[in-house]
Structures are given as structure tokens and as C-alpha cells.
Amino acid sequence: MSKPSVEKGIQFIKAQIDAPVASFFSSCVHCGLCAEACLFYTETEDPKYTPINKVEPMRRIWEQEYTVLGKLKSALGLSKPIDEATFKEWETLVYDGCTLCGRCSVACPLGNDISGMIRKSREGFAAAGYAPPDLIGATQRAMEIGSPMGVKLPAVKAQIRHLEEDTGLKVTIDQQGAEYMVLLSSMEIMNFPEYLEAIARIMRQAGKTWTIASTAFEATNSGIQIGVSDLAKVIVSRIVDAAESLGVKTVISPECGHAYTAVRWEGPNLIGRPYKFEVKHILEILDEFTKAGLIKTEGMEEARLTYHDPCQIARKGGIVEQPRRLLNKVASNFVEMRDAGAMNWCCSGGGGVSANERAEGLKLKAFKRKKTQLDELQVDTLVTACANCRLTLEEGLEENGMDIPVVGLTEMVADHLVEEERGS
Amino acid sequence: MSTISNDTEFRQALDALSLEQQRTVASRFVQNVLSLSGDSRLQQVIDAVEVGTDLATAFKSAKRVSLEAHARCGSEGDWNEQAGYFVARAAQAAVEPQVRTAGKNPAWKAAMQCRMARTCLASDSDEDTHDLETGAQHQLLTDYLNP
Q1: CB spacing of B124 vs A152 below 8 angstroms
Q2: CA pair distance A122, A117, nearest whole angstrom
Q3: What is the DSSP annotation of A361-398?
């Protein structure tokens, strides 16, 4: 990244203003529905967290640069300037007070993609040097080491050894021509190594060949979170290069929300061409395997449980039915949260918020929305499919004195696989 | 005298124990890696298993330590510190209320977390420390079964 400056930030935001953005600003009727859709507003009742307000610097630049009235106001000195103070004031709104969950975009009666505009605004804030230090550090590590948490290949190899010795399962690295290339998030490698074992057990039963790429095991893309497309492109390119070099048919995105958005939706646009392979989320794969009879489960969880839809997977990714079909195969007392599926409420830690330590207090305030939803249900277990959601939920539950275990859906499915004789 | 020499025998022997015995064995596995965590609350968790009282408080304490020790999304991971997280998870497994274990063996669960704690130490190198912990656990169980 070259040296940041306010001028650069303004130029970057200006460059993000395309026809859709211009039409969004032109059509906003100030109805306020986006406010009611945002957990940072509903849980703080502070109007500054109204989603459309978070893109106010971008709106000012659009008005001043691209509208007659705005140009006139500028000429008469009536426009509010975009300066250091503007970037400083809005930085916490754009990064700390938004998880890029996209609920505001879905709630907008005019279809304005407000969340998308916040994502675009981050490009300017990062270029101006107004981004959270923790996200800057994560992005630097992603560029230099290949992982935002600094996870290196020996760590993955150590986990593979651990897995192979404990279970007898085999995990290959860089297997040419494997059907699937499995990505992991550093959160899973660091905190939930059970995910890798679950994958190994599922793949063995499904009879599929799979591998992990030594040069691209990491799924997370901090370039997307901080809002630097050039860096996001480099990170996506590592995955694309590895997948195409190994000749895999499908890349499996792990239980990580934004990683899925980055590699599935933003990736081809970032590299400027379609992939030569498919990208699927692990829940899509599990659903396909069960439908095809490739994996069979036995026994049912009897605990009253519910499912937290990760925003990037459900609302932005459209993966809503698959987890429910899977849960209904392994749980006898599955109940839905209010607003489940595409209109779910965020865990409060997505979009880089949980990686941003200074946002901790605000995140816990916003978690009250999830607490309210869970209080209504009185469940014994909470299931989800995103490692970041999982930890955010665990922290929020602990903070609120709620003793509810949080479980990853892939692990839950693996726990119910019909046991086969080793080597069969 | 029965000697545990592989994981198949290890798991069978653990499954044959009562829940109370499984917790006791789990606490011994945790004790063996306790030095990898700098959190003194975990010793109290292990002590609670030995005494057999107030497991609920011990569980809350272990869960709190585990949450405090996890690697935050996007933060720079330190595998030596991360070993402490897995020790806390092992301690949590040892005292987990029955309603949460859903029939799963707490000793096996704790054993896996302890091995993971040891694996963390090898995460920055190609050194294989895994067998050390596995062998130690086999011996701990053998000793428990043959007092």
C-alpha cells in the first residue's frame, strides 16, 4: 500500500461511484427503514448508526462531483468539505459500526445496496489511512505470510499429523487432480481444529478425493474486510492459481462467512475472469452428498436447538435451505429463530468488527439483538456455520451469563455419520 | 495388569469407565499439560474434579478461561499462547455438565484437546511432539487402571 492521504481517500471513493451508486443516492427517500434493519442502530438507538449515514462522505463526494446542485453549492461555498475531520469522524461508523451484513440493503424499499456502498467507502478510508490498526495488521500479515493471523504451513501440517495419528484418516497436500480443494480459515486452524477432522471423515465416507494447497490453504481475505481491492485480488489469486494448477474441479469454502463472499462472489470480478473451477460452501457440499446418498447419518440430537444464519452465507450467499435440510437429518428438536434465513440478524462480529479490538464494547451492545432472539426460544444448543460467528456468539453468551453451547454444523453432521470399518 | 498401548485400547478403556472416573482421568490428562497454560484458575478446575464438588462453578471458570484464551479473528496468532487455549478447553471438557456432553466421553474429549495443546508447540516447526502426549496419556490411563 502506498502512503495514505485524504486526497487519495477522496479519489478512491470517487472511483467507486459508478452508475448504481449514483442511482442509489438519487433515489434515497430518507424513509429510515435501513435504520430499523441495522442492529447497531436498534441496539444503541444512536442515529449516527443509521446505515445511510455511514455513507454520508461518499454521498457528499457524489453530490459535489456529479450533480449540478452539488457543484453550485460547492461554488458558493455551501458544501460541507471532505477533510481529515470527516474521515476521522466516520472511520468508526464505517468499520466499527457495520458488519457488512447486508440487512439494510435487503430492507431498502428502493433496493439500494447500502451495505455495498459501505464496503466501497472502506476503499477510500483505507486509502486515506483511516482504518482500524488491527485490520491493517491483519492485512499486512495476509500479504506477507499468507494468513491474517500469521498461520504458516507448518501449523497446518502439525494439525494434519495430529489428525492422522488420532483417527487414521489421510489428508493430502498438493494432490494433483483431486476432485476438491479444501480451504480453511485461520480461525478454524487456531481455534476449531475439529473442523478439519470433520471434513476428513465426511470425504472418506463420500469416497471423494480432496487436498489442501500448500500455497493457498487460507480462505480468509482481509483485503475485502479492510476494503483494499488490490490486496483482495492478490489473496484471491493465490487460491485461483493453486486450484487451477492442481486441476481440482471444486474449491470448498469453509465455515467462514466473508471468506465465502470473497472467493465465490467477489473473486471473479477481482481477477477479471471466470474461474476454471467451481466454488461451493461446505454446507452446499454436505447437502449434495446427503442428497446423492454419499454420506449417511444416524442418531438424532435431542437437545432443543436453533440455527444462526451467517449473513454472508444466507443473506448474501443464498444458502438457507441446505443447513435446514442437514439439521433435520441430525436433530429432532430444531426450532427457528425469529427472522431466520435471509433476514437473519448478524452475530454482531462480522465484516472485520470482531478483528477490531476497539469495537469490542459496541459489538457486545449490538449482540443484545441476538440475545433477545435466543431468550425468546430458550434453546439448549446453538448451531452455526461460521467460525467467526461462533466465537462472537460464545463471547456474547458468556457476557450475558447464558450457558448455551455453540456448535459448528459441519462437525455436528460428522458426529452423526454412520461409522464404517476403518479402511473399508 | 492391563497396559494401554494404542488408541483403540485407550478409547475402549475410557468408554468402560463411569462418568466420575472419566472426569478423574480427564483431569490427569489436563494436569500433564497444565504447564502450557499460565492461568492458575485451571488448577482449581482440576482440584474440583478430585474433590468431586461444585463442578458447575468449575465449568464456568474453565469456560471463561477458554474464551479469554482463544485467538481473536484477525489477531496475530501465537502458538505458545494458543496451547493455553486448548488446555482450557480440555479442562472444560473434564467438568462439562452431563446435559452438554450428550453422552460423549469427557476423558476422550479432554485427551484430544491436550494433544492439540502439545501440537501447538510444534506449529511453528516441523517437529512432531504429538506422540509424546499420546504415549503419556496411555501411561496415565494404564496407571489409573492399575493402582
Answers
A1: yes
A2: 9
A3: HHHHHHTHHHHHHHHHH--SEEEES-HHHHHHHHHHHH
Nearest to B126 among A150, A157, A165 (CB): A157
Of B7, B60, B72, the CB nearest to A354: B72
Q: How many CA atoms lie within 13 A of A231 on its CB side?
A: 26
A372 vs A39, A107, A368, A369, CA distance in Å?
A: 12, 20, 6, 5
Per-residue pLDDT tens digits for A235-269: 999 999 999 999 999 999 999 999 999 999 999 99
Q: How far apart are the first and last CA of chain A?
A: 52
> Strands A278-281 and A250-253, how do they pair?
parallel
**What is the three-class DSSP state of A210?**
strand
Distance of CA A81 to the CA centre of its chain: 33
For chain A positions 292-331, those within 8 Å of chain B (CB to CB) are 301-303
Q: Identify all chain A residues contacting B123, using CB atoms and an 8 Å cutoff.
A: 152, 154-155, 158-159
Tell me the domain boundaries of chain A.
6-131, 143-291, 305-415
Which architecture, in CATH terms, is A143-291? 3-Layer(aba) Sandwich (3.40)
pLDDT tens sequence across A23-73: 999 999 999 999 999 999 999 999 999 999 999 999 999 999 999 999 999
Q: How many helices (H) and strands (E) does chain B have?
A: 8, 0
pLDDT at B147: 85
ipTM, two decimals: 0.88
CATH class (in words) of the domain with range A6-131 = mainly alpha
Cell numbers placing B109:
474429549
Q: What's the sign of the alpha-carbon dihedral B14, B16, B19, B20? A: negative
CA–CA separation, A56 and A62 (whole Å): 10
Task: For residue B116, list chain A residues with Cβ-Cβ distance below 8 A.
Answer: 162, 193
> Looking at chain A from residue 10 to 69, which residues have their Cβ under 8 Å from any Cβ of chain B?
none
Question: If residue A117 lies in a helix (H) or strand (E), which one and from where to where?
Answer: helix A114-128
What are the pLDDT digits (tens) for B55-113?
A: 999 999 999 999 999 888 888 888 889 999 999 999 999 999 876 666 678 999 999 99
Collect all residues of chain A within an 8 Å Cβ-Cβ radius of residue B67.
394-395, 398
- Whether the Cβ atoms of residue A101 and residue A8 lie closer than 8 Å to each other: no
Topology (CATH) of A305-415: Rossmann fold (3.40.50)
By residue count, chain B amounts to 147
Binary contact (A162, B119; C-beta < 8 A): yes
What cell numbers appear for A321 in the block? Answer: 435451505
CB atoms within 10 A of CB A257: 34
**CA dist B47 to B56, B84, B90, B118, Å?**
13, 18, 14, 22
Q: Is the fold of A6-131 the same as that of A305-415?
A: no
